[in-house]
Amino acid sequence: MNKKRTSFIYILFLLINFSFAAEIAVAPLSIFDNEGKSIPVTENPADKIYNTLEQNWFEGLIHFTQIQENIYGIPSTVIEANKICATENKEYILYGYIKNNETNWYADIKLYSAQEKKIIQEFFASDDAAHYDRMLEDITKKIITGIGELSGTNPEYLDNKRFRSAEARIPLYSFYWTPIDNKWSPKILGIAGVTTGIEFYPPLPQITLRQIKFGFSTGLNLSWCCAINHKETYPLFLNTVSISCPFYIHLCFNERNSIYTGIGLGYEIELLKIRPKYEGEQFLYQNILSLEASIGYDFKINEIINFHTGLAFNFHLNPDKCISIKPDLGLSFRIFKEKQ
Q1: CATH number of the structural domain spanning residue 147
Q2: What angle do CA 164, 167, 170 make, to 5 degrees?
Q3: Is-above-0.70 flag for pTM?
């Protein structure tokens, strides 16, 4: 797989997701001997862990703050850790202790989740009494690896289970909407149509944050719709052909359920045949450039077929400034998936 080919797109996607960054607090650590007495060390472990974490990018998905001992003291229980998270509005906190028993150093540091109300990761390290710095370096590396797995940015994890394969799908949706403006609402019975095209998921590392997987895709959509007149008005028949190139962001809550939002540019050709009262039949057409946005829900029926429902918003950029909202419903079919 050519990872260089996808690096630019990957960086762009990560910048989009920067606003979703989780907050992790680093609390001061208790350092004591066999008798429970506080002992001095050559380097403050909380400072070391915080500074090292700050130097790691974690793709912009994690923000770190350091908790000062003179404000909350040193947390040693889940209750104290949860209190700091609630007060500081943090989703996670690192806390724990380092113990020296004259012959060995032993470190036990926990990662607590305020949302789940439990310890979700625990890190251990030990070394002989002459190698405090080496023990601290070891526990720090383990914490970086653990937070990398939490954010979905751990290199080994990304290269294997969390690297999304390239995938292509064909959508097939139908939609129906009715104009509500004063000009067309009295004349048009309703507008119905179908959309198809192709949607492509590029091969990118799978970003996971707060147990939600982020996916990205782009597509080329082709739509056709038609409309007829109300019985009370003069005969008309409207045909519209449009093409659009959207970009989508998907939020996958589990293997089957996901929502998405998308935006892109579109181009339409409207063909209108009318026969006003006391006049001959007329053929009219216009070209329209539009900005298209969409939101929707996808349900994975099986490995090939997804059920889809959504809303498409179409903003005409020509002088009439028309806005349409189109509910749609349909299926999408996977036609290709790259093997890992």
Answers
A1: 3.40.50.10070
A2: 145
A3: no
